[in-house]
């Protein structure tokens, strides 16, 4: 049996690149609370962000000022505004969706 979950793509509407002197730095995705709840995510949680060119671990931040289905990214290389990304919860108990040996 293959594990499937509903995970609609998200549109990148903004990108922030920090400087070494900034107090808050590192890979982060900001999304609406309703988009996060649909994916069973909480503020501050670590998730996989899959973009068009690469994937990496990022921290979730809730920002209800964003439009539904839209996200902003901070310090995520290989992504740009207008890209489409997917967010996958980091959970070792869920079988891998790609390349899973059954």
Key structural traits:
6% helix; globular; mainly beta; 1 helix; 6-stranded mixed barrel; single chain; 102 residues
Q: What global shape is seen?
A: globular
Helical/strand content category: mainly beta
Report Rg: 14 Å
Q: Mean pLDDT, as a whole number? A: 87
Strand content: 25-35%
Helix content: under 10%
Q: State the major sheet.
A: 6 strands, mixed, barrel
Q: If strands are numbered along the chain, what order do they take across the biggest sheet?
A: 1-5-2-4-3-6
Number of helices: 1
Number of strands: 6
How far apart, in Å, are the first and last alpha carbons?
A: 9 Å
What sequence of helices (H) and strands (E) makes up the elements? EEHEEEE
Low-confidence stretches: none
Tell me what you see in this structure.
- By secondary structure, the protein is mainly β.
- The protein is built from one helix and six strands, in the order E-E-H-E-E-E-E.
Short description:
The chain has 102 residues and is mostly beta strands.
Topology diagram in text:
Blueprint: E1 10-16, E2 28-31, H1 33-38, E3 46-50, E4 55-62, E5 70-74, E6 84-89
Parallel strand pairs: 1-5, 2-4
Antiparallel strand pairs: 1-6, 2-5, 3-4, 3-6
